[in-house]
Amino acid sequence: MEHNTGKRIVVVGAGIVGASLAYHLASKGANVCVVEAGEIACGVTATSFAWINTSHSAPDPIAALRREAIREFHRLEAELPDLNIQWTGALCYGAGTDEALLAADHTSSTVYPARAHIQMLEPALKNPPEHALFKAEEGALDAVQATHALIAGAQAQGATVLTQTRVLGFRTVLGQVTGVETSQGTLDADVVLLAAGTAIKTLTGLLGRPVPVEPSPSVFIRYAARPGLVRTLISNTEMEVRQRADGTLLVAEDYLGDALEHHPSAIARRAANAIRSELAGADSLELQTACVGLRPITEDGLPVIGHLPTVGGVYVCSMHPGVALAAIVGRLASEEIMGGEISSLLLPCRPDRFF
Ligand SMILES: Cc1cc2nc3c(=O)[nH]c(=O)nc-3n(C[C@H](O)[C@H](O)[C@H](O)COP(=O)(O)OP(=O)(O)OC[C@H]3O[C@@H](n4cnc5c(N)ncnc54)[C@H](O)[C@@H]3O)c2cc1C
Predict the structure, then answer these.
(1) At 350, which CATH number?
(2) Ligand 1, closest atom to CA 196?
(3) For atom 5 of ligand 1, which residue has the closest CA?
(4) Pocket of ligand 1, candidates 34, 145, 295, 304: which has the most ligand atoms within 8 Å of its Cβ, to mutate?
(5) Does 208 share its domain with 225?
(6) Checking DSSP bridges between strand 51-52 and strand 90-92, what pairing results, if any?
(7) What does the pLDDT look like over 243-285, one tens digit per residue?
């Protein structure tokens, strides 16, 4: 632990991104206060499929950042075993697993199993494909549990956490932010770190620099199922599914609009039918929850990470996929904030590209 600065940092938002930043900053000796409008992990983090997925179709300006994501989670779970990451690997096939994706995949542990091997990986698959992409090093976590583990880790390093406390505005002296106004009073800060997900546009708008982070809906579904049905994480044309040890089946689906036939419960019924036709032993699926989560996505799709231009004392941090990148971004952004070390991996993510 590097206790040398005592820099006062207010982290706005206790989703997985804010929690990781708080943990890394507190570990470096910052005087961290996390301010959360609701409860810990009550935002989109609560409805995340939470796949630590490092692939992306080319061209990908943050390919180098993604490549570091898995190594950083291994580092982080050695520090915080309660992160409880399931390193099951991910089996991908069908649309989306096209040549561009294969070309963009640089991980050494990726293999291209044929049908017999696929059937061994996922015995319940009724019609395994001829070929697939198996990304052995990938995994997933419970995003809510991981966020609590990160917050507990930050608290163990001296961070304080204020829940049910909304940031309403900023205190500014000569163009420098010196604190935040909250529903519970004012907090002084040397740096205000905005990890407020889809609320970032409104908050930065208060400072005259609205960062274009927009809510992008996606559907998250949970079913009760018999344990052992899905062993890896399966992503194919019909479904994106993984399973927790207690049997809960987790599914992510596209949001199709607000018409009645696209209500999350209707999507969940169709997804259950697709899963039943893909997997033997899935007949007894029982819907637990189906809801829409709002992913924070910038207009160019890249993360937004860095100091807000022309306003001193504000650092912005928002991204999709926020779970996959939480560990690497938590470390790199905390190094920038604490030591002024500029990370080349974060250069494509700077907020000033929008102004
Ligand atoms: C269906 C679905 C599937 C997904 N699958 C994946 C996946 O497989 N892999 C992946 O990496 N990502 C995935 N994501 C995206 C991922 O969940 C998000 O990128 C990530 O959770 C963002 O975390 P966050 O901390 O930035 O945001 P949030 O969790 O929304 O946290 C922001 C917090 O800020 C608080 N806040 C807002 N305004 C204020 C204020 N004024 N004052 C105080 N607090 C405030 C909010 O209450 C909230 O708790 C998925 C999302 C969905 C919906």
Answers:
(1) 3.50.50.60
(2) 34
(3) 49
(4) 295
(5) no
(6) unpaired
(7) 999 999 999 999 999 999 999 999 999 999 999 999 999 999 9
